[in-house]
Structure formats: structure tokens, C-alpha cells
Specification:
Blueprint lengths: L12 E6 L5 E6 L3 E8 L4 E8 H10 L1 H7 L9
Antiparallel strand pairs: 1-2, 3-4
Length: 79
């Protein structure tokens, strides 16, 4: 299962861990993902989705349909 947000498409970022002596090593910055059940009024049921907290805040503010439209997705993409 990939570490990717179903709505925004956020995925792990590669970065470098820097020690006190300035030695670097590769590391991953993982997105803040949560498995949530979101109610879809158009379908009349809930759908399990893996979303980032940024997407959850957008859904709370703008609604699910507007957030999906902004990111070029449809409700069928969540199924």
C-alpha cells in the first residue's frame, strides 16, 4: 500500500538528515496520512479514504465535491 493521499496525491519526499558534524544521509519525509470514512452525499454512503490532514481541512472548509474538483478528481476515483 503506497503512502499517497487519495485526494491531493501527496507522497513521500526525499531529504537529507544532517548530523551535528554536518554528515548527511538520505531519509524520507512522510506525509501526514489518516484512514478516514467520509460521507459522500451523492452516493448516500460513506467511503474509506486515505487522506492527508491538509486535505481533511480543505474538505471541512470547502466540502468534498469542491476539494475533489480542485485537485482534478471525481467521486468515482474514491471508489
Amino acid at each position: 500500500m503506497a503512502n499517497r493521499c487519495d485526494i491531493t496525491g501527496k507522497r513521500p519526499n526525499s531529504a537529507q538528515a544532517v548530523s551535528h558534524a554536518h554528515n548527511t544521509s538520505k531519509r524520507k519525509q512522510l506525509p501526514n496520512l489518516h484512514r478516514k470514512r467520509i460521507y459522500v452525499p451523492e452516493l448516500g454512503r460513506s467511503v474509506k479514504v486515505k487522506v492527508s490532514t491538509n486535505a481533511l481541512r480543505s474538505i471541512d472548509k470547502n466540502g468534498l465535491a469542491a476539494t475533489l474538483k480542485k485537485h482534478g478528481k471525481t467521486i468515482q476515483d474514491l471508489l
